[in-house]
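re: that chain from earlier
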Amino acid sequence: MKIYALVLVLIFAGIIGLYVWLGNMGGGEQLQQDKLLASELQGQQALDQKRPDLALKYFDKALGALNNTPESPLRGKLQSSRGEALRALGRCEEARQAWAEACRLGQSGACKLSCP
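^ sequence. v structure.
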């Protein structure tokens, strides 16, 4: 009877361990995605609060997190938003470059943006 209980405990512990191990394997990717989306949201909030300097930092941080996934559809949106922050800072040439990249990545609205 004691051996039977011990075997059940070992099997149960093994199943729990396997579940935790498998869960940890995919957790990093989701965490990275969450951080990326948080940076984008913080950047948009900073723009809304008339803080383009802070917004630019958040957009750059989010774009840096995308370095491993160059084909991400979010890259164009971030470049467009980055251009908005640069325009608000009076850095027109850099804003145009960001919008050109966003346009190239399929953000058609960015193709029409300009900076005085």
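The mean pLDDT is 84.
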